[in-house]
Amino acid sequence: MTTKLFKFGDRALIHLFNGFFFLTLLFAITSPNIILGDNKITGAGTTLFTTWLLITVVAVVVCVLTYPQFKQWWYQVFIVQKLRTGVLILGAVVLWQLIFVLNVHPPIGFDVGAIHQALTDTTSPDIKAYFSLNYNNMPILLAQLILSQVFATKTWLFFDLVTVVLVDLSALLNILSIRVLARKKVAAALYIHALWLLIFPMIIVPYTDTWVLPFVSGYLLCYIVLAHSQCKWPLKLVAAIGFGITIVGAYFMKPSAVVGVVAIILVELLYLLKKKPVNWSAMLGLVGSSILVAGGTYVVTNHAISQQTHIQVNTAREIPAIHFIGMGVSGDGGYNPKDALKMAELPTKQGRINYSKKVWLQRLRQKGVGGYLIFLIKKQRNDTADGSFAWVKEGHFINQAPKPHGKGFAGQLQQFVYLYGTHLGDLRFIAQAWWIIWLILIAFGWRQRTKIAQVLRLMIIGGFMYLLLFEGGRSRYLIQFLPAYLILAALVYSDSFAFFKRVYRWLNAIPSRHQIQAQTDKKANTQV
């Protein structure tokens, strides 16, 4: 009975994932970001830069297919020496990140700007009101405050460099996860992460989306070590301690980032239905260690935040969670300035809860069951289709003139990332193309159903469902879940390639119209 329940749950998970993920892939393929030339939808079309890039890619593919010497060189460099090549490429990308940030580090608006302002301005009524309402951003403010005191600087360049370090640390932890699970796929992980980092401009946005990444990658790595039977027990004990610490770090940096922990718990419970021997004493000891460490870390961190004296806030003014649920069914499912203003106007916590619940239920009734389902499909598109992760689509994203003003090399880079830059469409096209390839690598690897792969799939599903329920409307919120995408892509890409090979062989096995006609004529002649 338990085995049947496990198989049912395992199949249900993969079917649910495929339903969500292939819909996301469809939305990505039909995104306006992938339009070549003039783009009347986004207003930022591609230029000759993308044209020459595509010509170069096609030329390389043709050379690999038609020139034996070039093919042999390509095979030797990227297949035989793949590990060394992957390390060199990733190192070159890290160097490129530093060059990019040193040349482009503008002040950022929206919540990021408020956090940066609060480092020096602690008396402004607007700043006090912001952190009273958005108390969840107090941890990143305090983290940035400590770093600014240690390094004696509060510049945007400094915090952008910190963001680079944190994002790259996340990538390193992801690659270590692959190293634990499948050593032969480390090179693929290096290639995948290098391509991601190469076209990820969010490194100049020092906010929770990027700062939470090493915590998410950290708890995934610790879990993988714990779940991998070949790891030794002393290492598993260290992983159990790290698991507790990184979970709490992720929670305080961005609470929604612990969706992956829920996925881990649910899949572990599912796998208990399999009739396999379990070392209960060891497992309970490791789980207990994680819980104790997490509890202690939470108490210490929470006390430090609650006792901070940097800025005076009124925690009774904090926005309730149901506000974001109500906002999640308005408009396109994203930020609603009217709801946000109402949270600032209502004086009591209960009043804010009552208002949010009221507008949430009103919006659900107005949509009805069918309307709400259609709304969720559209919202899934808004949440996941954009491979640039909604770059410069936030209000006051870059908090200065949106038109590039730099000169020389820095000015050319600004043309790719500023709202009115001539190459913004090129950046979006390249990011979208990679997003589509990335999704394809994951989508067609459904044959791999290891426990780790299922955890990562459920984490991705959980991220989708969280954004459908709460405020979403743009793909920037997917960034916190990217470690699951990156690790899963590296694990299942070979299964996806195998699938395409099977399809190719099947298509070749189908006789063409001319072959069928020739066979018919041959039979007719034989009969005569």
From TrEMBL:
InterPro entries: CHIM_prot (IPR021200). The keyword GTP-binding does not apply. The chain crosses the membrane at residues 12-35, 47-67, 87-105, 156-176, 188-205, 211-226, 233-251, 257-273, 280-300, 429-446, 455-472, 478-500. Keywords: Membrane, Transmembrane, Transmembrane helix. Signal peptide: none annotated. This is TIGR03766 family XrtG-associated glycosyltransferase. It comes from Loigolactobacillus jiayinensis.
